Every structure is written in C-alpha cells, then in structure tokens.
Amino acid sequence: MLWTARLCLLFFVSSLGVPVDRYSTKGHQKLLLISFDGFRWDYDRDVDTPNLDTMAKDGVKARYVTPPFLTITSPTHFTLLTGRYIENHGVIHNMWFNISTGEKQPYYATQFKNEWWDNGSLPIWITAQRQGLRTGSLHFPGTQPSYQGESQTVKDVEPRFYNYKNETKWRENVDKVMDTWFGEMDLDFVSLYFGEPDSTGHKYGPDSPERREMVKQVDRTVGYIRSSAERNGLTDSLNIIITADHGMSNVYRNGLVKEIILSKIPGFSFSDIAFHLVDFGPSGMLLPRKGMLDTVYKALKGAHPHLHVFKKEEMPKRLHFANNNRILPIILFSDPGYVINGFFPVQTHKGEHGFDNVEMDMKPFFRAVGPAFQKNLEVGPFETVNIYPLMCHILGIKPEPNDGHLDVTKHMLVSATEGHPKDFKSNIFVGLAAVAGFLVVVFIVLVSFHVFKKKTNYTGSEKSVPPESKEETHQTPL
Ligand SMILES: [Zn+2]
C-alpha cells in the first residue's frame, strides 16, 4: 500500500510542476541552429515561401532580429554561439591580421587561425559538452578551431572553394545532420551553415531575380529539413532555430553617387597609416603611425557626407565595438549605398553588408519550431545576443557569462520555468484528479484489507493469528 501512496503522491507533485523543472530534463530536448548567411528579414516578402510560412504557423516568427556591429559574417556568427557583443568575444573581423608584420588573412584562411577564435569566450558547443551533452557543427563559422583544447563531438569543416549554391550538396549536408548526427548518433545540439543567399546577394544585389530564386531554394531546403526531422522521428524532441548573421543592401557606384575614396580626401595620406583594413565593403579600420592619429582623424572626419569616422574611444556605446585590443584606433563606416575604397575603387559587389546595425537592410530573419516553442506566434524584434541564452535554456545547460537575457525571448516558449498560466491551470486539474484517484485507491485498499482480515479470521488459521488478536477478532463488529 505504501508504494501505491508514494506513486500517487509523486504523480500529484509532478503534475503541479512545482519542484520539477521541465527544462532541467537535460538532454531530452534537442536543438538545431541553422544559419542561412545574409538572409534579410524581408526576403520572404517578394517570393513564395510555402515552407517558411508553414514553419511560422507551426512555431514562432520574429518580425526581424538585430545583429551586432560589425555586421559581417564571422563576428556575428560568433555572437550567436556565445551571446556576446563583438567587442566582448574578440572575433572582431572576418580577417585575421597582424599589425606588427602587416600580414592579413582572408575569411577562409581565418577559419583555421585557432588563436583568432579561441581568445577567452566559449562557444555553446563546448559549454554544452562540459555539461554532459554531445554536439556537432557543419560548416558553421568557428567550427574548425578548438576552444581551450576542446572541440565538438563531430564537425565538418567547409572545404576550400566550396560551391555555396549546390542544392544537391545542401541535401547531403542535411542528411548528414538529421540522419546520422541526430538520428544515429543521438547528438543534442548541432549548428548548420549555408553560405546563401549571401553570395547571390553580393553578386547580383538584394533586389535581383537571382536572389529571389535563391530564397526559393532556401525555402525548399527548410521543407526538406522539416520532413527529415519527421522521417527520423525527431518531431517531438527536436527544436529548430533558423536565422542569419546579417542582411544585405544595394551598393551604388559608376557615377550614381560620389564614391568614398580615402586617397582622394584632402589632407589624408596612406603614408600616415601604419596598418589598415579597407576595401572591405562599408567598414574600415586604421592604425595611424605614431603621433599621426589626430592628423588622420581631422582629415577624414566630415570629409564625405556618407562616411562616419570615429576614434575608438568615441564609438557610440550602442554599437559595442570599441572595448577590445584588436580593434584599431580609428573606425570608419559608410551609409547604405556606399562602400569605403582605399586608393581607387576595386570592389564590384552589387550588394553589401557591414553597415550600422540600426539599418533595416542589415536585419536578419528569425524562425523557430519544436516542442519548446509556441505555435503560430509572431513576436517583435530582438537582438541576436539573446539567442544564446534561449538555446542554453532549451538544452537545459548553464550559460557562460553573456550579453543576452532569457527574459527577451521566453515568451516564445510553451512553458517557462516559472510555469505558463495555461499549463498551471491544467496542472491543477490533473493534480486534483490525482488526489481523487489517490483517495479512491486508499479506500479500496483499506476495504480490501478489512475484508482480507475478516476472511482470515473466518478460516481460523491458528498459526497465523496470535491468541490476543484472535481474541479481538471475536468481538462483535460495531
Ligand atoms: Zn555573412
């Protein structure tokens, strides 16, 4: 009888949800984080996207999200993985550089510069693994390095000269993640990266028919991912977050605008510069030679109506792009439509990113679906630093110190740890039903016990009933 009572009590307490935290069921909820590079928040407005629409009905859609500044690929992806602003996680640029030697490495080579990435902030893969989960990453920026000597359980680093557009390859990558990593290997967290529609947006511009075609390919892939989840029996355990690192904006040149060419600005000379990162879209950084900081700054400040020039210490606080030794003393960025050229225009892209993160063209999209998320819910915009604490919460892991907060996103979840009102009501109902069930069981057990005792007395087993008990059983029932 005691075990029955214990069982009922346990069921009652659990159903009230008081001491049992749903999200502390470590490992029970899986998570797939997907980035479609450069998918601007409004790319679904001029293209039919049936699969993204279905995902929004089945889950949560944010109007848009705000990436950190500098709005370029590696820094913003590392914010997704760490929940930190760029000045706090230290991956401040797509390019590794050394101001002493003047050496610069492009985006792909920088993926292999371990010290560029492993500089104090732990990405979610490592934090999750230290807390008993198993993780994987496919092509996501930051996948290749190790962090404090640790790597993901499995990783697939993007090959050199990878064809970002190949839809067959996309499906092979999805199959690897869904069938092998989640299905067979039972991983808890995977990050998955696609280099589109960024490449197409750069080459043809964000308003081009080529970009719209690429968004259709993204949409087909979203449908394929969701059907793969279903095929692998993951629908009830796997949460999927789809977002991006930044948006895309049109660039104007060839006489349409007065281009920004630093060497043509009166009073500015590259001979005053010890090291520079320019000719890289709309942003740049300069290290003036010793004693030349003010000369360079005064020459550039106000020199072009669409060029913003800041000393590091003057950078607007809201951009969170100053407080790091890797950031150079002068920071430049242009308004949408313009890029920053050094000696003469060498950039050919029709679309660019890297602008101020207040610009609507820089905002990525955000969708989420799965057992942790509400259905058919559209939410307002939020900063992408908040995706990290949301992911940690879903996985049931303790986050590293970060710049985001769960309060910003927890209304997307079906049940926060505090208990959702709707769930609380249903829990009360289930709890009361359990109490009633418990009382019925107690009643039945007591009656059965009484009948059993009477029956024992009737059969008159001398051995099993001590004399004094036997004496009592002879009493006339009241
Ligand atoms: Zn990107």
TrEMBL record:
Signal peptide range: 1-17
Q: Where in this chain does the entry annotate a coiled-coil region?
A: none
InterPro entries associated with the record: Alkaline_phosphatase_core_sf, Phosphodiest/P_Trfase
Q: Where is this region: Disordered?
A: 459-478
Database matches in Pfam families: Phosphodiest (PF01663)
State if Transmembrane helix is listed as a keyword.
Answer: yes
Q: Where is composition skewed (Basic and acidic residues) in this entry?
A: 468-478
Name the Gene3D superfamilies on file: 3.30.1360.180, Alkaline Phosphatase, subunit A
Has UniProt tagged this entry with the keyword Membrane? Answer: yes
- Membrane-spanning residues: 428-452
Which key words tag this protein in UniProt? Membrane, Signal, Transmembrane, Transmembrane helix
Question: What protein name does the entry list?
Answer: Ectonucleotide pyrophosphatase/phosphodiesterase 7
Where does this protein come from, organism-wise?
Esox lucius
